[in-house]
Amino acid sequence: MKRGFTLVELIVVVIIIGILAAVGIPQYRKALERSRGAEAYAGLGHIQEAQKVYYVSNETYLASSSPMSDAEETTLDISLPQSGWSFAIVAGSTGSITNSFTATATRKAGPCINEVVSMDEKGVITDAWKTCVDGL
Q1: β-sheet bridge partners, residue 68
Q2: Listed residue (130, 25, 43) closest to 84, CA to CA
Q3: pTM higher than 0.85
Q4: Could you state, in order of their start, the residue ranges of all structural domains in the chain?
Q5: Using H for helix, E for strand and C for coil, what is the string for the chain?
Q6: Tens of pLDDT, residue by residue, the chain (136 residues)
Q7: pLDDT per residue as tens digits for the range 58-93
Q8: In this structure, how many other beta carbons lie within 10 angstroms of the beta carbon of residue 80?
Q9: Which of 40, 88, 106, 127 could join 66 in a cystine, given CB atoms 3.0 to 4.6 angstroms apart?
């Protein structure tokens, strides 16, 4: 008696593997992109805390170029992970006093390229990037 798999059994196994891959790969991509988003949230949190310290010392918030330069990071005494995100700070002012800011992180690569996450001086997050990830 011969032992082995029939062609029908092998085709069924291949179909099952294909279905699992079709469901699993998009979920994996979403999870991967969400984990990369943690880099942006962490960077924005560092900027917010550093801006508070800078404000206490200088009575104004720092505005930055886009992307932030190493000199601006040094001024704020932070080191931002810039592998997947580009960070910038836009300061708002009343008269000659800079009394608000919005820090933004822009996605540099991946399926949600150029999508933005931003945080203001109060910690309010605006998240267009997450809408892209949810749509993947």
Answers
A1: none
A2: 43
A3: no
A4: 7-134
A5: CCCCCCHHHHHHHHHHHHHHHHHHHHHHHHHHHHHHHHHHHHHHHHHHHHHHHHHHHHCCCCCCCCCCCHHHHHHHCCCCCCCCEEEEEEEEEECCEEEEEEEEEEECCCCCCCCEEEEECCCCEEEHHHHHHHCC
A6: 678 889 999 999 999 999 999 999 989 988 888 888 888 999 999 999 999 999 999 888 888 877 888 889 999 999 887 788 999 999 887 777 678 999 999 999 888 889 999 999 999 999 888 888 888 7
A7: 888 888 877 888 889 999 999 887 788 999 999 887
A8: 24
A9: 88
Q: How many residues are listed for the chain in this entry? A: 136
* Identity of the residue numbered 126: T
